Amino acid sequence: METALWWVRNDARLHDNAALAAAADADRLLPVYVVDPRGYGEQPYDGRNSFDFEKTGAFRTRFLQETVDDLRGSLDDAGSALLVREGRPDDVLPEVADAVDADAVHFQALPAPEERDAAGAVVSALSDAGVTTRSHWTHTLHHVADLPDRISGIDDTFTPFRQSVERDSRVRDPVPEPDLPETPDLARLDGVDDSGSDLGSFPTLNELGLPEPAHDDRGVLAFEGGEAAGLDRLDHYLWEGDHLREYKQTRNGMLGPDYSSKLSPWLNAGCLSPRRVAAEVEEYEAERVSNDSTYWLLFELRWRDFMAFQTAKHGGQFFSLGGIRERDDIDWQRPDHDPAAREQFERWARGETGIPFVDATMRELNATGYMSNRGRQNAASFLANSLRVDWRRGAAYFETRLIDYAPGSNYGNWAYIAGVGNDSRNSYFDVVGQAKKYDSDGEYVTHWLPELEPLPAAQVHEPWELNRATQAEYGVVLGEDYPEPMVDLDATYEKFH
Ligand SMILES: Cc1cc2nc3c(=O)[nH]c(=O)nc-3n(C[C@H](O)[C@H](O)[C@H](O)COP(=O)(O)OP(=O)(O)OC[C@H]3O[C@@H](n4cnc5c(N)ncnc54)[C@H](O)[C@@H]3O)c2cc1C
């Protein structure tokens, strides 16, 4: 009789899950979700010049709670169960393995350093206890074993990476959902009563020291965690709403649920498999339309892959101030050492920079845990390129707040924009130019900054262009109704010319 544990990580789903499928080959199976205290509360950024920041904020925590609840429901329905435990995985899993006499533990391999370290500690603790471990690569569209190059040989620029996987790799078919074997005897597990009914639950927000996030109906979508909700969103975006056919034209939008897929929170918590998305895109292409929009969704998923593989290639360097280019020629303002930089960072974080487009994006993030790609690019460029504040502080702020946070996608995009990552150009986003292009009627900005509504659309992105008397006429006086701009934007771009 073989007993296996499935250590659930960012793969909380029954569909296309090689770790679950392998664990389900055993005669008995116990899925275990571990709430690691290192993922919550104030934690050090780590590496050189570390600083503390809140690792997971309320939006993502709630999404994860819902994800775990949903997984428990589907495991129960499939005749299995889910054990939820708090503690370090390298403490919890050996204890559980011992209590149920597990022979093997199957788990998802993840590429970023903290995730790899956590898995490494589990493997070593379990091997001391004589338990076999097996990791499974399930996080990306392309399986690591199918890449044309070894991880160390992957190009640091996206285009050659994309071309090589499009040409020389293939996307595997999703793994069928397995039948689940019976649950082992849990009587020796600490804290589980005789009926085996109390299998633990995710801590409440209050227990984690987090506030209950208020629902803001200005948000693009009420993101709900879990495999069921993730598959529903995919179904809505592709089939019901038929939005995929115009994705390439709409993806730079900023308002409403359907300008982009909004799949990122489910992909990153693992409620949704990228290969499942690809399989449905293929079906959509066969049944509805195959065009540059259907291709583009996969193109973007390859960006996600690229960033994930880059974290595996570069490890800690990817998250360092000088980035993978090891740049030391930028004079970063450091909020941890310098009160003036701290004040600048905080104004940015609160959405009070006096630059409407930036403030709208940050208020959206703070109110909902989500921000469009266009918004992220501009908010990040303003902090890193215009203010020259340590880009890692901005990335860490996003890590706390984003409902869809993923290490590679977040830090990789930040580093790219800050000029220390996977792009060799020194560039910046002209925030007002971008605002006029992507929010030409000022609808997005006034959605999040209603105090600017009285202004004519032509002035909404540059209220400082109005003299004080005109500001007063509209009832939007800078410094009273809305902040004065904290910098002269054009002057901040001079260093790039
Ligand atoms: C500063 C900054 C920080 C970011 N942080 C994250 C993050 O923590 N997590 C995250 O998933 N994405 C991040 N992104 C990428 C991108 O903004 C989001 O993936 C996207 O906005 C999510 O919305 P969507 O699912 O509707 O995207 P869609 O436009 O529908 O794209 C489909 C999918 O492709 C992937 N994708 C799209 N663009 C990118 C990209 N530039 N890099 C990597 N993957 C991409 C995502 O998985 C996304 O769900 C960041 C971008 C920037 C500029």
From TrEMBL:
Residues 165-175 have a biased composition (Basic and acidic residues). PROSITE patterns: PHR_CRY_ALPHA_BETA. The keyword Flavoprotein applies. Its cofactor is FAD; (6R)-5,10-methylene-5,6,7,8-tetrahydrofolate. Signal peptide: none annotated. Residues 165-188 are annotated as: Disordered. FAD binds at Y247, S260, S261, K262, L263, S264. Residues 2-141 form the Photolyase/cryptochrome alpha/beta domain. Binds 1 FAD per subunit. It comes from the Archaea. The record marks W332, W391, W414 as: Electron transfer via tryptophanyl radical. Keywords: Chromophore, FAD, Flavoprotein. NCBIfam families: crypto_DASH. May have a photoreceptor function. This is Cryptochrome DASH. It comes from Halolamina litorea.
